[in-house]
User: Fold these one by one.
Assistant:
Number 1:
Amino acid sequence: MGRSNVSPVPTSADTDDGVPLAHYRQHEGCGVEITCNVCVKRRVVGLEAVIARLVATGRGGPQTGVRAIARLIREPCGCGARSWDTRPAFRAGIYADGVIPPALLIEDQERSDDA
Ligand SMILES: [Zn+2]
């Protein structure tokens, strides 16, 4: 397990962040599966939508681990829980009906809407 990239930002909780999102770009149609740990409701968001959202909110980017995303989600589930699990979803198109807008994925505290 060699870590080739050095992160300039120290992470307080260096737990299992998973594989960097950029890795999944080689898997066409890959997305991120987001599962509520309480009601087990599942959603899938497109990989690039997730990366774009992370960059836009300053919370991460292509190097963010797929499992780390779970900690970045501030939005509560429909059931009220705020405990999520995230993992790569291959051939995400088969879950197309479960796609949610990326805006729901990560709440941006610093709004910068250039309308
Ligand atoms: Zn739930």
Number 2:
Amino acid sequence: MYLITCAYWLNAYVFEAPEADIWLGLGQIKSLFDSRWVVSNNQKFTKMNPNSVAEPKQILTNGERFGVVGGGNMTKALVFPLIEKGLLSPEQIVVSATTQATLASWRELGCATTTDNKLVTSTSDIVLWGVKPQMLSKAIPQSWNLTEERYSKCSSLHISVLAGITLETFKQRLQDKLEVLPRAPYKLRCIRTMPNIGASVGSGCVVFTPEPEVIDEDRQFMHDFFGPTGLYFEVPEYQMNAYSGLMGCGIGFMFPVIEGLSDGAVKMGIPRAASLKLAAQVMKGAGELLLAENRHPGELKDRVCSPGGSTICGVAALEENGVRNAFIKAVEASTKRGEELGQLK
Ligand SMILES: NC(=O)c1ccc[n+]([C@@H]2O[C@H](COP(=O)([O-])OP(=O)(O)OC[C@H]3O[C@@H](n4cnc5c(N)ncnc54)[C@H](OP(=O)(O)O)[C@@H]3O)[C@@H](O)[C@H]2O)c1
């Protein structure tokens, strides 16, 4: 029996596997996590000293109200970790969904919940929209008005995570249903984002496109809110569906890869539990290595392919089965579906 230790940061998975010959050194892996990556606005990857990156800090310290319309998987992935880390106070949050089953987990964290979206839109300074794209029109309250307090602030920020829905469509649909009294020049400001569910473990990606009307405070909020979720950066809106295909959907393409790697291991006699854990760790290691060293994947692949060795035989088998073409087609298909979703009324 061999002891396999897969170490991530200071936590270690330790389990026994028969006839395994894989060893990962804790020190080697930890060194990969000693640097942090951020992506600057010009989209160049920049390696930063961890100390020079803004530390996660308390969000919305002036008592602002934060609303979520559509408290499903994606908005939970973004907001729950912030509440659990104490960065966002549940007392400031109101969430809507159609069922109590979905709302229960928000309530357990201390958030107010409702099935009436008007309560969210009318009382929140910042609203995160997380319904399915085809549900947007239905989700916007037939008419929504504002509390006296919000009239006095004259503005609110609306953040969409909806695949395919353009900023123009999003804002238009919100404004069409907004009742504005003549006495207040009320303004909506909108930001379109594309996150992925890796946010729930702090390894997410978020891209965003703000409207020109967005103010410095909104950008600061984006930084504080999305910063702790992983990589985030601004992109031109016309590329948003392609980013959605790459990483909003792309994280979903990784699970069949992990499962396939595990299936191969099971076929070769490794138990399922061990093979799944190791397959996931292998994927994580590859991603972290590429980010830490900022190298082309071909270069890293060459590093592990010795002439006449076993890895190059596996790589050749992948190529015979069109692995790269499969991913190109997957990103293309998801991008096109995002474009279609944006056309739905
Ligand atoms: N999941 C991802 O990986 C991912 C990644 C990037 C972007 N997105 C975007 O995130 C959005 C949500 O996706 P999801 O995967 O989180 O879906 P989801 O889990 O189904 O969440 C959607 C939520 O919207 C609620 N809802 C439906 N109709 C509503 C209405 N009229 N008013 C208020 N709430 C309503 C649902 O409530 P009930 O549960 O009570 O029915 C549900 O909780 C989509 O627009 C998607 O494009 C998702």
